[in-house]
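Hey, I'm writing a tutorial for new members on how sequence and structure tokens pair up, and I'd like a real worked example in the thread rather than a made-up one. If someone can provide the structure for the chain below, I'll link this post from the tutorial.
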Amino acid sequence: MRKAFIQLHIAVFLAGFTGILGRLITLNEALLVWYRLLIAVITLWVWYFFQHRLQRISMAGMIRIIGVGALVALHWVTFYGSIKYANVSVALVCFSAIGFFTAILEPLITRKPFNKVELMLGLLVVAGIYLIFHFDPQYKTGIIIGMISAVLACLFTICNRLLVQQYKPETVTLYQLSGGWLFLTVLVPFYLQLFPADHIVPTISDAGWLLVLGWFCTVWSFNLAMNALKKISAFTVNLTYNLEPLYGIALAFILYKEHKQLAGTFYIGLLLIVLSVFLQTWLVYKRHKRP
């Protein structure tokens, strides 16, 4: 259990950089994710091929994994879209809502009873987001897109927990990201018709940041999170990922001076989110220390 928590927190720390990289990379959000997945997929296929770690699975299983990959791709597109319409800090705070959505959707999908404590902690996060939304309406569009992103993130995490019980984490990661890339390859031409991009080919600077995003924040982070899901519930994983905004927001304040753009209610909302994470961590620790 301790190893799983360490893996999870490293994955969260790496994920904290994705918002910063999303702002650094000048590509349209859909193209950004397409290139991110392309780099990750090529890396994984080569890596697993030479290590003989490719696992054969049934066609039905592959279709399920690829379907979840489409959710991953859509989550990333909406996440970076939220950054474009608001800023890094607001997009990352919206991401915290996955704890609330998981507390509702996981029992419905897995047919388990609702956990009142998880619901209350999730509501605490939503209350924090509401404060930001209600008192800082200039980020309305970005917040709505960010909440959609949180729902998608919640769904693919729940589905991943079910998948890693049947298949190796590396197999799920490989076919999932490959499926997400194929899905976006079909979607991007239509997306660009609705949201035209200034440029399609990444600049030299973009290419460098895309490699960091693809290798460290995708391949390594994804594998760590998948391994953690073997031992930890989807709700705990999602709530722990609420630390991602803290890392990302701190970097956004330092690099982009975003604290100058945010009202006082943002910090009250952020405090509620931090409180939710602290309480959940304490409860999980207490539960596992109990004889």
